[in-house]
Automatic annotation (TrEMBL):
<keyword id="KW-0067">ATP-binding</keyword>
<protein>
    <submittedName>
        <fullName>ATP-binding protein</fullName>
    </submittedName>
</protein>
<keyword id="KW-0723">Serine/threonine-protein kinase</keyword>
<dbReference type="InterPro" id="IPR050267">
    <property type="entry name" value="Anti-sigma-factor_SerPK"/>
</dbReference>
<dbReference type="GO" id="GO:0004674">
    <property type="term" value="F:protein serine/threonine kinase activity"/>
</dbReference>
<dbReference type="InterPro" id="IPR036890">
    <property type="entry name" value="HATPase_C_sf"/>
</dbReference>
<dbReference type="GO" id="GO:0005524">
    <property type="term" value="F:ATP binding"/>
</dbReference>
<keyword id="KW-0808">Transferase</keyword>
<dbReference type="Pfam" id="PF13581">
    <property type="entry name" value="HATPase_c_2"/>
</dbReference>
<keyword id="KW-0547">Nucleotide-binding</keyword>
<keyword id="KW-0418">Kinase</keyword>
<feature type="domain" description="Histidine kinase/HSP90-like ATPase">
    <location>
        <begin position="12"/>
        <end position="116"/>
    </location>
</feature>
<dbReference type="InterPro" id="IPR003594">
    <property type="entry name" value="HATPase_dom"/>
</dbReference>
Length: 123
């Protein structure tokens, strides 16, 4: 399977559009991957800013794992996992990512950052 590369602006309407593009590319159910796409793109909107240019990559590794990468131009926004209170309406995205992914991380460069995760073998 060829990698999927999406260049878009991080705006709320881009979240379902990105999910749809990833679903079509995978050609099989992939709910965990779609949830990770939503969470990482929503984090860019919330923490870097609406309208930020973003690149989304989905790569299937030879061993069957799926790698998702979301790149934005802000090299200073750090991702911090936290334990939200039961009343909090936000703050669970990275906890979900941590629960679903085999591993995840952040690459920082002078030009921006890439948040990535690897999901177990799927469809």
């Amino acid at each position: 399977m060829n990698p999927l590369l999406l260049d878009l602006l991080a705006v709320p309407k881009a979240v379902p559009e990105a999910r749809r593009a990833v679903q079509e590319h995978m050609a099989a159910p992939c709910p965990e991957l779609l949830l990770c796409v939503s969470e990482l793109l929503t984090n860019v909107i919330a923490h870097v800013g609406e309208g930020t240019p973003v690149t989304i990559r989905v790569i299937r590794a030879p061993d069957g794992r799926t790698r998702l990468e979301v790149t934005d131009p802000d090299p200073h926004a750090w991702l911090i996992t936290r334990e939200p209170d039961t009343d909090d309406q936000t703050g669970r995205g990275l906890l979900l990512l941590d629960a679903l992914a085999q591993r995840w991380g952040v690459w920082l460069t002078p030009a921006g950052k890439t948040v990535w995760c690897e999901l177990p073998e799927g469809p």
